[in-house]
Amino acid sequence: MYAIISNGGKQYKIKKGEEITIEKINKPIGQNIKLKKIITIFNKKVIFFKKKHLNLFEIKAKIISHTKNKKIKIIKFKRRKNYTKTQGHRQKLTIIKIISISKKETTNGT
Question: Which residue, of 10, 37, 66, 79, is most buried by count of CB atoms within 10 Å of its CB?
Answer without folding.
Answer: 66
